[in-house]
Task: inverse folding
């Protein structure tokens, strides 16, 4: 209701409620969003117990396009003031190769996790930290393609030999012909379901699994109605999609899966050995699946 | 669409003199223009001598004709082909009935006055079977399965009106016309063509139905020839004739989607490079949820696209096989595999009727 009153959503509350949304989170002070990133990263580091010196890579992902034109008066050095380096400094990571990733929309954090896992597996670094988050500009429209957007930050520690949430497979179906998101909004809406169906089936097959092997689908928090449709397409019960956070969190650009996994763990939903399929669409466009074994 | 092609076939029979009752909207057309522009025929003097136009409105008492014309026609007409219909699927039932049922009732009343009448044909649809499933016999009409749209229901009721009459009649139930088997030409871009357009626009998301549903499509030239051969040369009063291709000569729903994308890709490389995904075949429930989202979001384009599909595609959830017999002299319907590419090419070439 507050988002409606402040005109940050345009559709009726009834419609948004039917889509499964109840709340959206708005960063109080977008200028201080970095503090949220730091807090998420520190929590991930604390949860893992990994000493900062063992973190070989820091990925910072943002789904919003950062290449907006800067002020004409700003010096060129402004362009070299990097948030990821600042974050590494704030986290006191002495050996981390800090690098920012972007432009995969909601798929970005899953892609970052996949990259981090490959680095950890291939190299001599025992861990990589993936931090991600976005805050929409103040007073902007928070409704994108039938979804209510929240601001959020999240972080994941990717470790070699982790006892839980082991990566089984990563699969991404790209369609760069859809790069022009504002002009192709309707085409993207139309393509979403057939591509999602195809991508999930391909991901499961690539992992040598069947859909019935997947205990939980961990969703991006796009509309509940869209997940109901997708569940029908996949011929799976909608109850296998853990959708509780759609109402209470809303859809963040790229943090949904991490927030959902944390909440599933906290409420005791997950059992050791459960196969989880994390799925999302990302502007750009890509349909991405990450299969984990809890 | 069927009426035009049937008239073309009738005009090729030199022993037939035609009186065309045209709706008022055709008032501006002279006989030569009508022949050239509507029936794609050269208006030769012999042809012009065999054709008469009267302006009227079947939904009005007396067919909307002057009394003298009405009476004079009743004296001379010996055969009637009732091809007038409102084929839109999204009309409210009263409006669909006004055109499809009331007009039939008025024409039956007129036919009863025709002293020399030997034959009356009603063009109908195999989808008077509505939500029935399984084998549909020509001899069956009455059912309680319900209807997918008001077109089906109004044609069902029109058939009932004719059945209740004492007229020497035949009901021709057509499946879905898609165009000329040789050229792909179509005078009306109906739901199958619009569905193809939605695919071409990259807006096809979900198609509700069963993947192996047999999509019975027939070419207009074959349908018209079949109907007129039977009507003029083998008329059997009281009969119902299914004018269908049959499952063996039809694509399944999954195949028609695949073929549409393959043909569009061959004919339009720029479109192919966009890699639009084929729509997913979904349940009615999933499709209705998508429709509801577009409606609630007040998205006019998606409402238009999905609304066009929703009145038609529900049939894809009621698999049926239409009983049919090859009529004398007509031959079986052409296999859709032999001419569907021409239909797609015609749609692309004309941009679905936007370019002549």
Result:
């Amino acid at each position: 209701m507050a988002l409606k009153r402040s005109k940050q959503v345009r559709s009726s509350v009834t419609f948004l409620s039917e889509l499964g949304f109840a709340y959206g989170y708005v960063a109080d002070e977008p200028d201080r969003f970095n503090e949220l990133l730091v807090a998420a990263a520190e929590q991930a580091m604390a949860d893992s117990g990994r000493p900062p010196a063992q973190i070989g890579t820091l990925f910072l992902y943002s789904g919003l396009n950062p290449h907006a034109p800067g002020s004409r008066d700003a010096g060129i050095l402004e362009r070299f003031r990097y948030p990821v380096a600042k974050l590494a400094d704030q986290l006191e990571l002495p050996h981390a190769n800090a690098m920012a990733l972007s432009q995969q929309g909601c798929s970005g954090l899953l892609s970052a996790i996949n990259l981090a896992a490959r680095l950890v597996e291939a190299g001599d670094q025992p861990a990589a930290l993936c931090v991600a988050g976005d805050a929409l500009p103040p007073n902007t429209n928070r409704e994108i393609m039938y979804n209510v957007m929240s601001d959020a930050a999240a972080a994941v520690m990717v470790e070699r030999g982790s006892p839980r949430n082991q990566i089984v497979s990563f699969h991404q179906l790209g369609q760069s012909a859809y790069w022009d998101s504002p002009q192709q909004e309707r085409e993207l809406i139309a393509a979403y379901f057939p591509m999602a169906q195809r991508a999930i089936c391909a991901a499961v097959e690539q992992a040598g699994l069947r859909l019935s092997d997947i205990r939980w689908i961990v969703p991006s928090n796009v509309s509940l109605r869209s997940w109901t449709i997708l569940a029908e397409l996949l011929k799976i019960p909608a109850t296998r999609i853990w959708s509780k956070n759609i109402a209470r969190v809303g859809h963040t650009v790229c943090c949904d899966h991490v927030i959902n996994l944390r909440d599933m763990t906290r409420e005791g939903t997950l059992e050791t050995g459960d196969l989880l399929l994390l799925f999302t669409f990302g502007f750009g466009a890509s349909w991405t699946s990450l299969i984990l074994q809890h | 669409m069927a009426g035009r092609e049937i008239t073309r076939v009738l005009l090729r029979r030199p022993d037939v003199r035609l009186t065309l009752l045209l709706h008022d909207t055709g008032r501006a057309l002279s006989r030569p223009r009508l022949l050239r522009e509507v029936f794609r025929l050269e208006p030769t003097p012999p042809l012009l001598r065999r054709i008469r136009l009267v302006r009227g409105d079947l939904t009005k008492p007396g067919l909307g004709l002057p009394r003298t014309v009405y009476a004079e026609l009743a004296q001379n007409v010996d055969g009637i082909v009732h091809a007038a219909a409102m084929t839109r699927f999204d009309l409210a039932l009263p409006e669909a009935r006004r055109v499809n049922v009331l007009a039939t009732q008025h024409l039956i009343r007129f036919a009863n006055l025709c002293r020399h009448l030997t034959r009356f044909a009603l063009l109908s649809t195999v989808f008077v079977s509505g939500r029935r499933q399984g084998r549909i016999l020509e001899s069956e009409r009455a059912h309680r399965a319900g209807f997918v749209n008001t077109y089906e229901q109004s044609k069902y009721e029109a058939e009932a009106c004719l059945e209740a009459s004492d007229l020497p009649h035949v009901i021709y139930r057509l499946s879905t016309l898609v165009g000329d088997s040789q050229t792909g030409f179509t005078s009306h871009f109906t739901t199958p063509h619009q569905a193809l357009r939605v695919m071409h626009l990259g807006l096809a998301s979900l198609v509700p139905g069963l993947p192996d549903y047999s999509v019975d499509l027939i070419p207009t030239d074959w349908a018209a020839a079949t109907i007129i051969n039977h009507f003029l040369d083998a008329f059997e009063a009281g009969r119902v004739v299914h004018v269908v291709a049959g499952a063996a000569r039809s694509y399944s729903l999954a195949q028609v989607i695949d073929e549409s994308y393959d043909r569009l890709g061959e004919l339009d490389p720029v479109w192919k490079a966009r890699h639009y995904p084929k729509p997913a075949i979904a349940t009615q429930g999933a499709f209705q949820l998508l429709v509801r989202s577009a409606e609630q979001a007040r998205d006019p384009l998606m409402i238009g696209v999905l609304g066009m599909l929703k009145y038609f595609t529900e049939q894809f959830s009621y698999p049926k096989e239409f009983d049919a017999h090859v009529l004398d002299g007509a031959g079986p319907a052409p296999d859709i595999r032999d001419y569907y590419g021409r239909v797609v090419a015609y749609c692309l070439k004309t941009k679905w009727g936007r370019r002549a």
Chain B has a mean pLDDT of 93. The interface with chain A takes residues 201-206, 273-280, 282-283, 285-286, 289-290, 292-293, 296-297, 299, 301-302, 305 of chain B (CB under 8 Å). Chain B has two domains: 2-183+215-250, 184-214+251-356.
